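Hi R.,

As promised, here are both runs. First protein below:
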Amino acid sequence: MDTKLKIIIIFSFVYLTIENLINERQKRKENIVISGDKGSIWVTITLIIIGNLLSFSIAATNIGRIYYWETFLLIGIIFTTIGLIIRIGSIMTLKDFYTYTVTKIEKHELVETGLYKRIRHPAYLGQLIVFIGISISTSNWLSIVLMIASILPGYMYRIKVEESFMVEHFGQRYLDYQKRTKRWIPGII
């Protein structure tokens, strides 16, 4: 296996470990009032794992290989960095209202500042961009397709669950927020 691919896999493992640590930290929150996750976290995590396994498995072969490693590695690093900035910025904007699962906490408020002013799910957008960047860095078009095709349905399901939960708990205020914002990309979707 190519050294660059090994480095990419190690980085991905470290990233997923950090995400898991964030999840474990959130589980210790004592101010959770109600959960409405409906298993969406496990659907999303399972599809992320499948996406990574498929992406790296095909990247380890010559099937779908694009022979411009350095260029695609650089593009992948740029995407991953942008995704991390968006994800971390989104989590920091939510502060104590950030939870890893779909839950309502005590004194929960609808956050409409930072990226949330225009996008309802910037943390998911950031994470999706991270995974796209990781797959681009493998320099394999099939790896990119397999990653996106595997993880996108998980995010779509999770957003559906989360938005239903938010409407249930914030009512008209969240419906108005939906009208003013897009799910992932301002002005598009």
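And here is the second one, sequence first, then its structure tokens:
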Amino acid sequence: MESRHRFSCLHGLEQAGPPADLRRHVTAVVPTRAIAELLGVPAEGHTEFVALAEAAVDPARAAEGLRALLGYIHRLVAACRPGAGENVISGLRAAGGTSGEGIVRLAMVLFFAGEETTKMAMTTGVARLMAHRDQWERLRKEPARIPDAVEEIVRTMGRNGGGLVRYARTDFESRHLVRNRGRHARAAASGDAAARTSVATSAPSASAPSAVRPG
């Protein structure tokens, strides 16, 4: 499914000619079309669904766009019949136990959990490979490594992002970091700590190899 959408979008990118707009022709379209198919959106409705999805995540149009997308999914769920096809909505209809409103909520969760994150992963992956052309050339010569490269890109996305703020309940030590109960110790190779009021933890950093993981 995803391969078919990707091929179609890459063909459109080629036909558009330079300069290449990867986001417009590929990364903003492939994930949305894939999710549309998962939800059972008819092929003739994919273009409309992509437009609604773009509006829903555009800060300038988000309120109106989200209402329009929600309305579309409501109509899609109402029109779907159990077992009408191999898609999420018809499957939930056939399984029973979930109200129409519940299916709409699940569809929206699927959309927001998979659409924007996949766009980000695709765009970030291409940008990183462009910055490290040796890795790009290696993948061209050894395409069997592509699945591992994709996993690495996804694994390291957002690793250096912010973290949740928490208060330490007990004293603990992590390498050169010493955090005291109710205070935050700033990283210092000597072990010296500058007292603060909180502890910031970064869940994405847990995906880093232990050799480079901070703390």
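A quick note on the second one: DSSP finds nine helices and six strands in the chain. Let me know what you think.

Best,
J.
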